[in-house]
Design brief:
Layout (H helix, E strand, L loop, with lengths): L1 H21 L4 H32 L4 H22 L8 H28 L7 H15 L4 E3 L4 E4 L5 E4 L1
Length: about 170
């Protein structure tokens, strides 16, 4: 998944650099470039969503999860048996086994959460920077601008924000 995410990021970067090198600042061309980047990003998001849903579905069915639940159950059962045996229940072996069963169970939950968190960090392809930059190029080259210049600052009126200062 990381490789696919990286390939979309590199595609977006190369598309941005291509716009700069070709100096083709026609609005239709710039829109088609941003649309392609956005479409690839959305496709990635769909694939990621399907992958994450599959992970959630199969996380508790994995061999590791089944083995850890089995080990937890065995430890808990042995702990109960040990608590009922004379002499052995004085050693707190049953309590230690029950505690170990809980720690195995907690480990499995933490492990699945760790994998889910790692997967969630890959959620976005992070191409918005390139899309916004290409949109700014389109705006600066194809829209009427109000520009104010002071002694050391250039102000450009933006359709989203009232005024941007460039020092």
């Amino acid at each position: 998944m990381t490789d696919y995410r990286l390939s979309i990021y590199l595609y977006a970067f190369s598309s941005y650099v291509e716009v700069l090198f070709l100096s083709n600042f026609e609005s239709a061309y710039l829109q088609s470039v941003t649309d392609k980047i956005l479409n690839y990003s959305l496709e990635y998001r769909v694939i990621f969503t399907d992958l994450y849903a599959a992970f959630e579905k199969y996380a508790n069915k994995s061999l590791r999860s089944i083995a850890s639940r089995g080990a937890s159950g065995v430890a808990k059962g042995l702990g109960s048996v040990a608590d009922n045996l004379p002499k052995v229940n004085e050693t707190q072996l049953g309590e230690k086994l029950s505690n170990k069963a809980e720690s195995i169970k907690d480990w499995n939950i933490r492990n699945n959460a760790k994998i889910a968190l790692n997967l969630a960090s890959q959620k976005k392809a992070d191409v918005s920077l390139f899309i916004e930059s290409i949109e700014k190029i389109d705006y600066l080259n194809n829209q009427a601008l109000n520009i104010l210049i002071s002694k050391d600052t250039l102000y450009i009126e933006n359709k989203h924000k009232k005024i941007n200062a460039i020092n």
